[in-house]
Structure formats: C-alpha cells, structure tokens
Amino acid sequence: xxxxxxxxxxxxxxxxxxxxxxxxxxxxxxxxxxxxxxxxxxxxxxxxxxxxxxxxxxxxxxxxxxxxxxxxxxxxxxxxxxxxxxxxxxxxxxxxxxxxxxxxxxxxxxxxxxxxxxxxxxxxxxxxxxxxxxxxxxxxxxxxxxxxxxxxxxxxxxxxxxxxxxxxxxxxxxxxxxxxxxxxxxxxxxxxxxxxxxxxxxxx
Length: 204
Description:
By secondary structure, this protein is α/β, with parallel strands linked by helices. The chain has helices spanning about 20-30, 40-50, 65-75, 90-95, 95-105, 135-140, 155-165, 190-200, and strands at about 35-40, 55-60, 80-85, 110-115, 120, 125, 145-150, 170-175. The protein starts with 18 loop residues before the first helix and ends in a 5-residue tail after the last helix.
C-alpha cells in the first residue's frame, strides 16, 4: 500500500506505534547509500541507536530544519534518495517548508513524520497535533498529494518501500507512543558533519 492508496487511514484511526521500532524497520530497507537526516532530539537519537551509517546526518539544535536540509541534499544529489525523519513539533515550527518541497517536487525525497502530539524532550508540552492540526492534511494542502498516515507497521513498511522507488516527494506520517528514545547521539558537530560529507561523497 502506498501513501496515496492509504487515504482511508487518518490521524484518528492509525495505530499508535513505536518510533525506535519504525526507525529500525526503515533503516533495514536502506540498500543504496540513501541519505537520512535525523531531526533534533528523539528522532536522531533513535536513528543513532539503529546503527551509525556514514550517510546519516544527526541534527543538533536546529529545530524545524530537517526537511529543508534534506531538500537541499536531494536537490544537490538527485541520484541519491534522501529521507527526513522529523517530529510533529519541529515540523509545525517550519510548516512552510512543505510548500517549498511541493514547488520543487524532488522525486528522491521522502519525509517521515513522527507524531506523538508532544514536545517530548522539552517537558512533554502538547503540540497542535494533540488537538486540531493534521499534518497530512496540511501537507496535501501545500501540494504534496503523496502524503498519508501509516495505518500500522506493515503499512509503514510498504509505504517506505514504495517511496524508495522514487516518484516522490512522499510524506509518511506515523502516530507514535510517548516512549523516550533508546539512546543518545554523540554531540560532536564537527564529527557528524565530516562523516556525513564523506558518506555522501562530497569530501574524500
């Protein structure tokens, strides 16, 4: 089932899943040097705990910039698939980036949104998605027709597999539980940058 085929799934009837489990499932499908941009906090902590691939970029202190950074990489390297892992609170801070993605329409970009309705690492204050906001509806309104909620783990796996074939951009939203990340990224910005640049072949 692809994102466009699972339109019957909404934020209200999607299964609540676990971010680390889904991150592991996603990473297991990466076979061709795909770049992954992990958003600040738990999104990149769980990416780190899923295995330190040189093509992973772990963001530190740049709330809301996961998708803009991933878009830049996707434009610069159209032959490489790029995946952004972003939380609901961070996306809400920079929601206009969805319109920019829709204007550029990179076929090699997948955006995965972890939505637990919380600013989890700053005290678990509720985000707008805990009440009224639907990030998939907002993405579609911005022009990203291939946007949908993952109904369950199997649906998520199928949506990721479909997205990796190209033809994007694709936005996959997943409702997640409130469990904290299983680890923490080493906070060394220079090392993170240098390893990523080598991982995507822009530095020897």
